[in-house]
């Protein structure tokens, strides 16, 4: 029965693609001009919300330059379909209404002639549309874990809580289900279980590069100059080099405006994934930045998120030293049953996890506003601690400004060993369930040391649903 269903589904898909291909280009709202075996122009001749781009995952990436009234608006990398269409992705064009829109497409795929190039499936199926179907077509999409509606997703980014809503941003490729075109996607939840997907990337690539990982914080005093209670995001702009940039939002993260003075922090070596927070005790912003290839975290301070002073570094020779160090997070937690608090530094690395590939390690210690000092074991060494021993818990970071002193973390539920090869196409990757972090004092033999505990605390509606499922 399953086999018959699969055959029927394949026939339906093939029929749909064939129907699209049978329409002339003009009827699909485009004009196509082939300039050679590797260069094609696509003129958009009809108004609509989206230009639907056909994708074939096995293909090499084509460079798509989007020109609006003769000026380059954006450049994409898309695996445009050659012999078949695996799925389609939308290029939003509704903002270009009334303007001349031209795609200059350059592909590295080898063809013997222009005649052969004209036969590519993408040219037969590219079209203008007012809709894009995001209904689930995947058998293996998780029911409770957050996933993107479509496209590739990896690290969670810029997570914050404001006005009753949890905002989850994430590394996102809207133009395919493999790593590329990195932007920040955006989803919102009131209970950390039911997520509402925002349709557009909130921060897109620009002349400084793709948008890599980073963090967001609510600027309660307006110290950055973007307004009181503005949401400020700091992220890595990644092209030939990795530099740190700012964007800000005055509508609770629905849209972001890039700071016109970017970048705000540059180094002469590879550094990424800025994680910042307000140090209320010292009235200063603290930034932890991954010095990726040097296996250390750099700690900076700033009064305004723009002018940063390097205070110290942590990590060389400590903990797991394999691969690269990425995605830091530094926060303070109370120790269960005690009056004191300790600081926790999350440090994600790839590869080098306890069971291979990527993973999250952590250090417990003290922070004086400038320097993080890790606790040691009975032998005087800094122990290696893992937040999760599974292979699918990476790039773990926490929500800023969470209520009731909560420290809630989410990770990327995948592993770089196999992330691009999982059996889905409409989307790739999921997030872990949210975990509440806490510290307890572990006791064994004669030793007493703080340890991190992480607990999944489902919303009451989820607990009820799970109970019904078990019965």
Explain what you see.
- The protein is about 10% helix and about 45% strand.
- The chain is mainly beta.
- Strands 1-2-7-4-5 form a five-stranded antiparallel β-sheet. Strands 12-11-10-9-28 form a five-stranded mixed β-sheet, with no helix packed on it. Strands 21, 22, 23, 24 and 25 form a five-stranded antiparallel β-sheet that branches.
- Strand 22 and strand 23 form a beta hairpin.
- It is elongated.
- The protein starts with a helix and ends with a helix.
Task: Provide a compact summary of the structure.
The protein has 471 residues and is mainly beta.
Protein traits:
single chain; Jelly Rolls; Tachylectin-2, Chain A; five-stranded antiparallel sheet; five-stranded mixed sheet; disordered C terminus; 9% helix; 471 residues; mainly beta
Distance between the termini: 28 Å
Rg, nearest Å: 24 Å
Binned strand content? 35-45%
CATH homologous superfamily title of the largest domain: Glycosyl hydrolase domain, family 43
What is the CATH architecture descriptor of the largest domain?
5 Propeller
**Major β-sheet annotation:** 5 strands, antiparallel
Reading side by side through the largest sheet, how are the strands ordered?
1-2-7-4-5
Average pLDDT rating: 90
Topology:
Layout: H1 2-22, E1 30-34, E2 39-44, E3 50-55, E4 62-68, E5 71-78, E6 87-92, E7 101-106, H2 114-118, H3 121-125, E8 127-129, E9 151-162, E10 165-173, E11 183-189, E12 195-197, E13 210-219, E14 230-238, E15 242-249, E16 257-258, E17 272-279, E18 284-291, E19 296-302, E20 309-314, E21 324-334, E22 341-350, E23 359-367, E24 372-374, E25 385-386, E26 394-398, E27 408-412, E28 427-428, E29 435-444, E30 447-455, H4 460-470
Parallel strand pairs: 9-28
Antiparallel strand pairs: 1-2, 2-7, 3-6, 3-8, 4-5, 4-7, 9-10, 10-11, 11-12, 13-14, 14-15, 15-16, 17-18, 18-19, 19-20, 21-22, 22-23, 23-24, 23-25, 26-27, 27-29, 29-30
């Amino acid at each position: 029965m399953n086999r018959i269903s699969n055959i029927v589904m394949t026939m339906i898909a093939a029929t749909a693609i064939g129907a699209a291909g049978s329409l002339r280009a003009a009827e699909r709202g485009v004009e196509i001009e082939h300039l050679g075996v590797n260069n094609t122009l696509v003129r958009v001749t009809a108004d609509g919300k989206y230009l639907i781009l056909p994708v074939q995952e096995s293909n090499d990436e084509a460079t798509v330059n989007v020109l609006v009234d003769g000026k380059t608006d954006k450049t994409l990398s898309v695996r445009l379909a050659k012999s078949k269409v695996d799925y389609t992705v939308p290029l939003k064009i509704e903002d270009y209404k009334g303007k001349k829109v031209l795609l200059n497409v350059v592909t590295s795929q080898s063809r013997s002639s222009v005649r052969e190039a004209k036969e590519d499936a993408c040219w037969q199926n590219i079209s203008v549309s007012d809709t894009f179907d995001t209904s689930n077509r995947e058998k293996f999409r998780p029911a409770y874990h957050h996933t993107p509606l479509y496209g590739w997703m990896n690290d969670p980014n810029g997570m914050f809580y404001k006005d009753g809503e949890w905002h989850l941003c994430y590394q996102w490729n809207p133009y395919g289900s493999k790593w590329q075109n990195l932007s920040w996607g955006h989803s919102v939840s009131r209970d950390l279980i039911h997520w509402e997907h925002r349709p557009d990337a909130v921060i897109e690539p620009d002349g400084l590069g793709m948008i890599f990982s980073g963090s967001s914080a609510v600027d309660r005093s307006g110290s950055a100059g973007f307004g009181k209670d503005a949401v400020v995001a700091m992220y890595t702009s990644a092209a030939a080099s990795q530099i740190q940039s700012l964007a800000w939002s005055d509508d609770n993260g629905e849209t972001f405006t890039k700071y016109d003075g970017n970048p705000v922090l540059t180094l002469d070596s590879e550094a990424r994934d800025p994680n910042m927070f307000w140090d209320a005790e010292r009235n200063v912003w603290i930034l932890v930045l991954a010095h990726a290839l040097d296996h250390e975290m750099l700690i900076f301070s700033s009064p305004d998120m723009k002018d940063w002073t390097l205070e110290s570094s942590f990590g060389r020779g400590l903990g797991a030293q394999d691969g690269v160090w990425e995605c830091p997070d530094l926060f303070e937690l109370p120790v269960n049953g005690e009056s004191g608090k300790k600081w926790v530094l999350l440090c994600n690395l790839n590869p080098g996890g306890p069971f291979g590939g990527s993973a999250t390690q952590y250090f417990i210690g003290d922070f004086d506003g400038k320097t993080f000092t890790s606790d040691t074991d009975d032998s005087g060494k800094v122990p290696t601690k893992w937040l999760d021993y599974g292979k699918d818990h990476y790039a773990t970071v926490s929500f800023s400004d969470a209520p009731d002193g909560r420290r809630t973390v989410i990770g990327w539920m995948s592993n770089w060993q196999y992330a691009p090869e999982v059996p889905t196409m409409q989307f790739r990757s999921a997030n872990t369930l949210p975990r509440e972090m806490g510290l307890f004092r572990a006791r064994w033999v004669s030793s007493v040391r703080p340890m991190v505990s992480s607990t999944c605390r489902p919303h009451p509606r989820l607990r009820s649903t799970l109970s019904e499922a078990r019965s």
